[in-house]
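User: Quick sanity check before I run a bigger batch. Here is a single chain. Can you write out its predicted 3D structure?
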Amino acid sequence: MSGKNATQTIRADGAGIAHAARIIRDGGIIAAPTETVYGLAARADCDAAVAKIYAAKGRPSFNPLIVHVASLEQAKSLAEFSDAAQRVAEKVWPGPLTLVLPRKVDAPLADAVTAGLTTVALRVPAHRVMRALIEQSGCPLAAPSANRSNMISPTSAAHVLASLDGRIDLVLDAGPSEQGLESSILGISHDGIWRELRPGPINLDLLHQHYFGLPLPAHQAGKKIEAPGQTASHYSPGKPMRLGAGEARADEFLIGFGPVAGAINLSAKGDLAEAAGRLYAALHEAAASDLPRIAVGPVPETGIGRAINDRLRRAAA
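Assistant: Done. Predicted structure follows.
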């Protein structure tokens, strides 16, 4: 895996998935689509395979990985589920929610997956390709976003190759991702206390109100990383960014939203779900432009807009 265009891209059909599963079983690493973004998948029970993920991404060892599993039953073999955690999993999985739960002492996982923490991040994905990969690989898959560490997350096969070409074995191409933003991350303690560790497509406040009739308590993140996507600087396009811009300056590529048109617009009709789906593609386009700076129009801090603004703030940090 060296040199330009060294990573093969194939269709995510039956033959392609079977080929990718063989690579994973043999300890290789591949990129595959999920309903959120493209993930970099390797067997989570193999120290050498997980080490390849960290090496390919240039990811710091203190940053844990999300483990993708096929079912709640498989997840329960890896983590301790309180009644609250089980209720949430039964309601939302499969889907774009990652649960951070106490890791079982005998969980068959590579130590690097959890980055030395006593918890493990688990998700049951909804995308047909990732689900088939887990089933055909016969093991849980560690699968962070398929990009170099701190760079823009990928929502297409081309985005994956932009930073990982020659560093991984294969890319399964199933077209653009559906959600466009990484999963929401929810920590649930043994005593059932909820903590939002990363906003995403699932509105955790509404979910908390569904069960408890109360808004989700605000969580102040500490200095220690508890889950993926918590570093202050992340999702970087490699150029200075200005947020809340009403218009572009002469040296800026403007990403608009709603009435702020821009060079491209996340959603001309002000649809936050559409904006979330287009965010990373827009950042990739802005990063590739000849202009040295990026500006982004105001995005409301409501619903999935919270997750969009979270990613934008980290990208601009």
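The longest strand covers residues 38-43.

User: Great, the batch can go ahead then.
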